[in-house]
Design a protein that fits this description.
354 residues; alpha/beta; 11 helices; five-stranded mixed β-sheet; 11 strands
Amino acid sequence: MMRRVSLFVVIVSFLLTMYSGARAAEPIKLKFANFFPPTHKNAVLFDQYSQEINKKSNGKIEISYYAGGTLLTAPKIAAGVATGIADIGLSHCAYSRGRFPVMEIMELPLGFPNGWVGTFVSNDFYDKFKPKEWEQFHPLLFGTSPANVLQTLNKQVKTLDDLKGLKIRGTGRVGDLVKALGATPMPIEMVDLYESLRRGVLDGNMGPMEQLKGFKIGELEKYVTACWKVGSVFSFYVAMNKRKWDALPPDMKKLFDDVTNEYKPKWALAWNEIDIEGREFLQSNGGQVLNISDAESAKWIKASEPVVVDFKKDLVSKGYTAKEVDSWIAFIKERIDYWKGQEKAQKIPTPYQY
């Protein structure tokens, strides 16, 4: 009888060990939401990012990747990651205006020449100031779009006066810029932009040239006004739910950090590349890039100044000091100059010459 009991105990212990081992071997499953269309280079890049983490984790991580807004649309990604509908999300701050008020500073017309520079500056900014607005998230990576420029369907815009009366797509602080320049801002989501242009709901768009190809609007729009010296961009993020991040084992956190550091320069370079491709796509469809003089650019820059003033007032009303905001802006401008120098030294292809 004792032998039977002992044998039973051995068998049960063995089965429990096997079960525990099987449970331990189950991967940590994560859902990654991205609003870019599956064929867009940003969607492809972060599909590769997800696959690389899956592979290097040796079965410990399993990221399911949802591009094209199939899990969460762009405006819902921040809230969706915070509440756990997705574990990781890629979107930009303008889609959830007011949720990341400090990081919206990256959307201001501060002289960003392109996405390569903007991407490194945005990571530098977060690393230095760590805005408390990200407490529900673990930011993995920040980036910016290339410089926003005016894109129009049929009207050539060569001066500020030409903008009057036009309905131009612009979201978040970029919408404020559209208004400051004299047009009517329309906060339309990217997935609706093509149809809005096709049906004449809009006269154009304030955005980077990459959208011309990435979202095919270069098939419709005929003109780009190269007002890039204004230097406004969209502020993007890739962020994980904070609780999910905290639950990761240390070795998996290190894996995420290592792969993310590899992809920072890749994303920065991709922004420049796709902006150049967007210009070429426009031109291949018969469109034109309209260059404006330095004197005219100066008028656009002057007209954009109230956007910065209003941002400062908004942040002061939220409890920050004017001195803090000024220090952020000074830091950003210093880093823009630094990364412009690095871009030149590394001979990074740029969409505009400066």
